[in-house]
TrEMBL record:
PANTHER family in UniProt: 5-NITROIMIDAZOLE ANTIBIOTICS RESISTANCE PROTEIN, NIMA-FAMILY-RELATED PROTEIN-RELATED, FLAVIN-NUCLEOTIDE-BINDING PROTEIN
Organism this protein belongs to: Talaromyces atroroseus
Upper lineage: Eukaryota, Fungi, Dikarya, Ascomycota, Pezizomycotina
Tree of life domain: Eukaryota
Pfam families: Pyridox_ox_2
SUPFAM superfamilies: FMN-binding split barrel
Name of the featured protein: Flavin-nucleotide-binding protein
Length: 265
């Protein structure tokens, strides 16, 4: 049996509300981060600013030192930004690294209960804390850019004009976040209500309860007006099809349902 790594529980990352839904499993948390199209990166701009700042960014978990490491291993979070952005400048001027909080969430179902009080979502969420430093090594920067590009559509890096030229590299910043704490929270299953409501015949015969699955579907690719490649490449078509199927499968599985037989093939 393989080992299962977890993030140590600290005051920083211990989930207190609905603690039974918490996970500290490294693989589960990293999977949520990598499955999210947008990460929200929060940081303090400086002592003169009253409010923290949150920026939506693209990022992925990975290890430059150990590229073959899977999601269950200790990984860094690489996030992409513009070279003159405030976040990059703050990270550049910090010797230890800029303290940041990275959060991500996926909604898998609308949970409809007998009362508004018990309505909920089936969801997956993750929060990471760590120190962001600017990547200055060109080899690591290119590796991280490929990692992030391929998270948009697998193998897109090799199927586009690469490597970037010097101007593009100079204008792009990559931040590597060394993670010090992490936690996740997952809600699945159906609706649940109070005993008093289950015993109310008028309510249970009038109010529909259950879960409306929520999943992402990628639309048919639309060529750019200046596109000169006649057919949509197979790597894009197969990803579009597989992504929607896997997303639907997870959302249905979260409530104990299965993908219809005809859609499994």
């Amino acid at each position: 049996m393989g080992r299962t790594l977890t993030y140590p529980k600290k005051s920083l990352n211990t989930v207190k509300r609905y603690a039974h839904r918490a996970t500290y499993d490294v693989k589960a948390i990293h999977s949520i981060i990598n499955d999210s199209r947008v990460l929200h990166v929060s940081f303090s701009p400086g002592p003169e600013d009253l409010f923290p700042t949150t920026i939506p960014m693209i990022g992925q978990m990975g290890s430059f030192e150990y590229p073959s490491a899977d999601l269950g291993e200790p990984l860094d979070c690489y996030i992409h930004g513009y070279v003159s952005a405030r976040l990059a400048n703050l990270a550049r001027s910090s010797e230890q690294g800029l303290p940041v909080c990275i959060s991500a969430s996926k909604v898998d179902g609308l949970v409809l209960s007998l009362t508004p009080f018990n309505h909920s979502y089936n969801y997956r969420s993750a929060v990471l804390h760590g120190y962001a430093q600017l990547v200055t090594d060109d080899e690591e920067k290119l590796w991280a850019l490929k990692l992030i590009t391929d998270s948009v559509v697998p193998t897109r890096w090799d199927n586009s004009r690469t490597p970037p030229d010097k101007g593009e590299i100079a204008a792009t910043s990559i931040l590597k976040v060394k993670i010090v704490a992490g936690s996740g929270k997952i809600r699945d299953g159906g609706a649940s209500d109070e005993k008093k409501d289950y015993g109310n015949e008028e309510v249970v015969t009038r109010v529909w309860t259950g879960v409306v699955p929520v999943y992402e579907v990628l639309g048919d690719p639309i060529p750019n007006p200046d596109n000169k490649v006649e057919a949509v490449p197979e790597y894009i078509k197969s990803y579009v099809d597989e992504y929607g199927k896997q997303s639907q499968q997870y959302a249905l599985g979260a409530v104990g349902a299965k993908l219809p037989e005809e859609e499994q093939h």
